[in-house]
Every structure is written in structure tokens, then in C-alpha cells.
């Protein structure tokens, strides 16, 4: 894999890394079996991260997801939906 997967949209507006999109340099997709959520989500009264919304998926802990290759997300882009930033691309093989 030559490139990281882009976070194309994030609906978790309470996250400190969401400033009209994901500004974290790289997120980790975590969660529990049957669910994939952004483990980088943090609720603070401040905004942080990159100056532009250009977040990427740095690692994926959901081994059962069909897009997980060697702990990396192997699709072009993901959308993080809902207040808990669930990965909309999560699919079990």
C-alpha cells in the first residue's frame, strides 16, 4: 500500500479534530467486534490538528473488516458518521 486512506467526511462535530472535516494527521479506526469507530475522537473545547481538513486513516484495528490489509485501510476513502464517528465503510468479510 503506497498511500493512506483519506477521511473524506466526519460527522462527529464535537471532536476536537473536526473543523469542517477531519484535521487529524492520521486517525486510528478501533471499536469492538461488529463496530468500527474512530479511536482518535476526542471531545475538547479547543480545535486542533492540521490547518486544513486532510485527515487520513493511519491504522485500522478491525481485523474482521474486509478492507483491512496488514492493519491498514485498503480503500480510497472513508466517511465517519454519527456523533461517535462510526466508519461507514466497515464491512465484515
UniProtKB/TrEMBL annotation:
Limits of the DUF1540 domain: 10-38, 60-84
Q: Which InterPro entries match?
A: DUF1540
Entry protein name: DUF1540 domain-containing protein
